[in-house]
Amino acid sequence: MPRSRRVVVTLVALAALLAVPALSLTAGQPFYIDLFTRIMVFAIAALSLDLILGYGGMVSFGHAAYLGIGAYAVGMLSFHGIGNGFVHFGVAILASALTALVIGFISLRTSGVHFIMITLAFAQMLYFLAESLNLYGGDDGLNIARASSFGGSIDLGDPVERYYFVFLWLLAFLYLGHRLVHSRFGLLLQGVKSNERRMAAIGFPTLRYKLAGFVIAGTVCGVAGALYANALLFVSPSIMHWTRSGEIMMMVILGGMATLTGPVLGAALYLILESVLPRATEHWQAILGPILVLVVLFSKSGLLGLLADGVKRRSGARA
Amino acid sequence: MPEALLETERLVKRYGGLVATNAVSLAIETGELHAVIGPNGAGKTTLIAELAGEIAPDAGSIRFAGADITARSVAERAALGIARSFQITSIFREFSVLDNVALAVQARAGHSFRFWRPARSDPRLRDPARAILAEVGLEARAGLPAASLSHGEKRALEIAIVLATRPRLLLLDEPMAGMGPQDSAGMVRLLAGLKRRVTIVLVEHDMDAVFALADRVTVLVYGRVIATGAPAAIREDVEVRRAYLGEEG
Amino acid sequence: MINALEQVLNGTQFGVMLFLMAAGLTLVFGIMNLINLAHGALYMIGAYVAAWTFGATGSFLLALVAAIAAALLLGVAIEVIVFRRLYARDHLDQVLATFGLILFFDEMVRVIWGATALYMSVPAFLSGRVELLPGVPYPTYRLAIIAVGLLVALLLYLVIGKTRIGMLIRAGASNRVMVGALGVNVVLLYTLVFALGAALAALAGAMAGPIFTVEAGMGENVLILAFVVIVIGGIGSIRGAFVAALLVGIVDAVGRAFLRPLLALLMSHAAADAAGPALASMLIYILMAAVLFVRPQGLFPPRGR
């Protein structure tokens, strides 16, 4: 799809996100601020997955693990009385980067279904680990008393300030992601997805670059996890369950794979459906499942493709 | 007498009961165009794969510019200057033609842990890529998606990618596969132009091309070298005629 | 010592059930190159139909038959409607599409049978215990599961190894394209293989009814383990699936029982209480990671892989 259309859609989406707090407060529906905060958190998570999945071709089925690591970093530190935001986010970033390094180092030696399975297995391991940590709530989860504190410069306890904090992170990652995918590193990843055998034959030691991409993606997702903990003030092992990884993948596909805006749209679509459909029927998952199947079978460029091409059609055949 | 650029010493590869490479010893001189021919199933592609590093031999060694590379990976050998084209076209279909070649230039332009500057507008990558496209006659197609090229153009792109890595040794696996006479003639001209600048090991079935281009020819039958020498001598060799060209003489 | 024997038997029982799941999965993946996350749904359907039929009729045999029949019907339906379009697609598409199927089936089961778990009792003729050794009683039902599992393994071995259709299946697992090129009706072969896998999964689910909770989502946990089994065993290999399934089952059971007391020898009781169960849950995955690291193609990869 033409790039200019995508830029238009992106700008509209960002403008809409910018306006959400004002609109929801005016309408007397502060619930939407929470909803869109969560949407942005998952947008960041989906964006990080799209980097290695959509651009790099690495089907990692354990990406939700990094959400968990980031969230538990905040939760555990808070549990022990450490409320400093810099420490929270610093530890979240460090922990997810290290975990991604270890998991990636072992998993990236495999490919295809083995890779999918081994990333899935590692995520399950972390899930069980979290479940067994009775000190931090185990299966029941961990309540977080207070949001990360940045010393008075920003109060993450206030929904609106928290909203724009997350928004800034999303904006930053969108921009950084944009530079990354067009850089030499980004082209290399896309080359690996396109034809890894050829990449090796022209002299690229592909493993180290895939690993770097894997670590970057895991780290960004870890930040999403830390933001998640602040948004919900609660974390439980279910955030790392493999079905959660599947949901993040769904967001990437529904929104438009191998784009930056796609994951954002996908997260919005998924979470909005998740909050709207249950009012129609408690069995909304029975509708969501087939929708996903249909999207996969018939429409690979997702919502972004639909919007971008739809815009084109409406503006006439002035190609 | 110049030292051979590429030497193999009694290379062996077995697949169960089948011996695909049977004690193959070769010495490829710097600057020569050395053709490897043989009937189907002779093990030519296996040999190329062993030289490129995709298949590990069961026995024997490979030396490149005097150093033993038998244990080196595909990417390591490519970085040393050994480039390989594939029998079945292996390009980056979703990328543009120019991107394909620029990626190969990038492979030899230091590490790629560069996350910030847009690569598509970097003249250090684009300019050499354009030059190579001009050399293979594809400069008019630079902006098109690689998937949209004709078969002959794709084979030319394959060569362009390989050239962009500034190789010392080219391993070409049937570059003319599936080409009509016009495209083949173009490819022969291209390869002729490359002679002397780069050492080439050429696996081909097209005999006209082989005898037009090759400085020396090695004949492989059931994984064994049965003759090596100048094209004219090979043509006359009794063993070769019997094994390969049939007994009509 | 006696406890160890009991754990090994429990592990074997769990292992044969994993084998029933893994056998179908490995065939489908090995021959059709299709990752089917919805395989667990067939297991779940088997359990639900069996539990409901047993509750309604009191006949365990009828329950088994109904479960397998339901899975066969459903399996063929999915294969024709969804899977035929997925064979040519890449793994990501297959993962996502079958994930969507999971969501659908988990919910449909709630629609039909409600959100609370179904109860299935052990059938009367299999209740009670058997004295394996003097003073070592073991539940008859679990022994029956082991017996059925071993019988199925033997049957599969005979069919796959000794019959013509088995030869086609083995050939397909090694080189799918060639089988098609040889003029075999590949479409029919695929449907057949898939149906076989579905039947095995349903059998496992039906037998699981009295032991495990019959609820939505029960398929997912078993599915992951089944995937772990086929990865360890070698994708496409029934023999590999058998060995790996028993290995996984026994390691899991023994690990859960003995890891905590073992750790308690090395560290404080409190630490062992926390670390034991955690490590036990992770044990199988550590095993898989180790196997993949050392032998990426699995323990018994079919020839040609």
Structure characterization notes:
The complex is a heterotrimer of chains A (319), B (249) and C (305). Chain A is mainly alpha-helical and 319 residues long. Chain A has one domain (3-314): ABC transporter involved in vitamin B12 uptake, BtuC (Orthogonal Bundle). Helices cover 75% and strands 1% of the residues of chain A. Chain A has twelve helices and two strands, in the order αααααβαααβαααα. Chain A has a two-stranded antiparallel ribbon. In chain A, helix 9 (242-255) packs across helix 10 (261-280). Chain A is globular. Chain A starts with a helix and ends in a 5-residue tail after the last helix. The relative contact order of chain A is 0.19. Chain B has two domains: 1-81 and 167-249, Rossmann fold (3-Layer(aba) Sandwich); 98-166, no CATH class. Chain B has 249 residues and is α/β, with parallel strands linked by helices. Chain B is globular, with a radius of gyration of 19 Å. Chain B has a six-stranded mixed sheet, with helices on both faces. Helices cover 36% and strands 25% of the residues of chain B. Chain B is built from nine helices and ten strands. Chain C has helices at 2-32, 39-57, 60-86, 91-113, 140-162, 164-174, 176-181, 186-208, 218-233, 238-266, 269-294; strands at 129-133, 136-139. In chain C, strand 1 (129-133) and strand 2 form a beta hairpin. Chain C starts with a helix and ends in an 11-residue tail after the last helix. Chain C has a two-stranded antiparallel ribbon. With 305 residues, chain C is mainly alpha-helical. In chain C, helix 1 crosses helix 9 (218-233), helix 2 (39-57) crosses helix 9 (218-233) and helix 10 packs antiparallel against helix 11 (269-294). The model of chain C has no long low-confidence stretch (mean pLDDT 86). Classes of the chains: A mainly alpha (319), B alpha/beta (249), C mainly alpha (305). The A-B interface holds A 179-180, 182-188, 190-191, 194-195, 197-206, 209, 212 and B 52, 73-76, 78-79, 83-84, 86, 90-95, 99, 103-104, 106-108, 112-120, 122, 125, 161-162, 164-165.
CATH superfamily of the largest domain in chain B: P-loop containing nucleotide triphosphate hydrolases
β-sheet strand percentage of chain B:
25-35%
Spatial strand sequence of the major β-sheet of chain B: 6-7-8-3-9-10
What CATH architecture of chain C would you give? Answer: Orthogonal Bundle
Judged by helices, strands and strand pairing, the structural class of chain C is mainly alpha
Shape of chain B: globular
Mean pLDDT of chain B: 89
Question: What is the C-level CATH assignment of chain C?
Answer: Mainly Alpha
Assess the beta-strand content of chain C as a share of residues. under 5%
Q: Which regions of chain C contain 5 or more consecutive residues with pLDDT less than 50? A: none
Summed over residues and divided by their number, the pLDDT of chain C gives a mean of 86
Order of strands in the sheet with most strands of chain C: 1-2
